[in-house]
Each structure stands twice: as structure tokens, then as C-alpha cells.
Amino acid sequence: MENKRIVSGMRPTGKLHLGHFHGVLSNWLKLQQEFECFFFAADWHSLTTEYANTEGIRDSIREMVLDWLAFGIDPEKSTIFVQSQVPQHAELNLILSMITPVSWLERNPTYKEMQENLTAKDLSTFGFLGYPVLMASDIIVYKAARVPVGQDQIPHLEITREIARRFNYLYGEVFPEPAALLTETPKVLGLDGRKMSKSYGNAIFLSDNAEETRKKVMSMVTDVQRPLRTDPGEPDRCVAFTLHSLYVAEEKRAEIVASCRGAQIGCVDCKKILAQSVVDTLSPFRAKREELAATPSLVEDVLAEGAHKATEEAGQTMKDVRAALKV
Ligand code: SF4
């Protein structure tokens, strides 16, 4: 039987924003129609950088999973769980760390990059260096065939494949080498033109109400070379227009492009059109989120059920691992 299993996780960063909506979640929604999906909240991964600040992780998990459910990630179709509730991830991590050469981890491109960028945190820890091993454990503990990744995450998956191959070489064939399932994710810009991110304070959250959303859209940077309403503008230079491309119908967009270049529309009116489209698109999601949030135990129940299913699968793999290891 073809292995149609997929594993994908998200760090619990709290409420999700439009960047998640058009990136990971839209893909998950499609994948769950076709594959056997394991979606998890990667709370142990949060510890690799947030070990000194664990206060909000539990609440973040709840908010994030509520967003998943409201978006349509379906616990009947997919296994939804929290990484730390399935201890086999940690057990396999320990075993894989015994066979993973340190040089593989040191050459991981994001390792140095993150250490250089996150200077406020001391990331010279064993856990941070070893997070690709934990990532490998997250995936192969389910013997997943595929992992949805963007182009930039391919080096991580390559380490996972190398670790699986090394295990199989040393102890016998236990793990399939998971293949990359390349996913396209549009880069969603935040209000200020940088990548949309909670930590930059430039995000529109899925759970923002209509008024908050409108206010945020109206504050978006436009074409900075168009100081006056009478100056012709250029949508290709406009941060707000990157959202028009995602939310405004093609015909209307073509109209806006012409009116902007011909100085027939002002940025305020143009952003009002955008704000309305964003609000309209998100309103069914928001209604659903509110409805789900009214059942306080819902997220907990979904996660308990998910942890149960995931533990069964991961437990089976660990039996194979122990048999192969002979310890
Ligand atoms: S009119 Fe619209 S597309 Fe043109 S610069 Fe202003 S906000 Fe951007």
C-alpha cells in the first residue's frame, strides 16, 4: 500500500496571521484531502530559542489550534496533537543524536544565521545545535513518506534524510527516507513592507475583528514615490498592493492598476477597497472561530484524541527501533 503519510508542525507562536493563512494553512487544507496528515504544535521546538521564556506557550498552543480548526483543519481527517504530549519524539531524538555527526549540524545554514540574528538570546546550547535531530525525529517517528516544505527548508529535510539513511545503514531498514513535497507559499508582506511577522508588530491576525483589520489595512505603506494624490503611482512599488493581489478580484485589480498609474484613485480609497475584501474573505473564518471558542474544552479534546492516535503510531515505530538497536 502506498505510504501517504505526511508530517508537518508549527511552532506555537499564538494567534496566526495572514502570512500563515496563505502559507502553511492553505497547504494543509489541500493536503488533508489527499494524504494521511499528522499536524502538530511544535512546543519543544519553541524551547530551542525560548527556553528562558516559557510562560505563554500553553496559551499560544490553544490560540493556534483554534485557528487551525476554524480554518478547516479537520480532526476527523487529520491527527492534530502537541509534540510534548507524545514522548516518543524525545526518545527517538535521544537515539538519533547518538548517530548524528556534529559536523552535519554545524553546517546547517540556519544555525549560524539565527545565532547571528537573534543576538539577544544565548543560542549556544546543545538543544539549539541539535534541533534538526529533533525535527528528524518528529518526521520519521511516523515513518512519513513526505514532508511539505518550502524551497528554503530543503536543507533541513536533507539532514532528516541523511539521519534516516544512517540509522538504516547501521541497524537495518526501519525508516523510509521522507521526500520533499514542495509547496508554493506567497510571501505576505506586513503593514510596513517587511515580511509579515508577529515579532515585527506588522501583522494582521486572523482573529482581528473587522474594525481592527480595517485600521491595519489603512495604515499600510503605499507607493512612497507618490507623495500627492495627483501624482501617478506604481502598484509594483506599493506594499498594500501585495495584499490586493491576494484579496481583490482580478478584474477590479486591473482597474486599480490603471487608476493608480493615471492618478485617478487616491490611496485612501484604494485601501478601503482592499480592507473590505480582506474583511469579507475572513469573516466566515472569524465567525467559525468564535463559534468554536464557545466550547472551552474543544481544543483540549481534539489534542487529547490526537495525542492518543499519534502515541500509538509513534509507539509502534519505537518498537521497531528498539528491535533494530537491540537495546
Ligand atoms: S492607489 Fe492603491 S495601488 Fe496605488 S499606490 Fe495607492 S494604495 Fe498602492
Automatic annotation (TrEMBL):
Keywords: Aminoacyl-tRNA synthetase, ATP-binding, Ligase, Nucleotide-binding, Protein biosynthesis
GO cellular component: cytosol
Known catalytic reactions: tRNA(Trp) + L-tryptophan + ATP = L-tryptophyl-tRNA(Trp) + AMP + diphosphate + H(+)
EC class of the enzyme, as a word: ligase
Record-listed E.C. numbers: 6.1.1.2
Pfam family, one: tRNA-synt_1b
GO molecular function: ATP binding; tryptophan-tRNA ligase activity
Coiled coil: none
Full protein name: Tryptophan--tRNA ligase
Species of origin: Geotalea uraniireducens (strain Rf4)
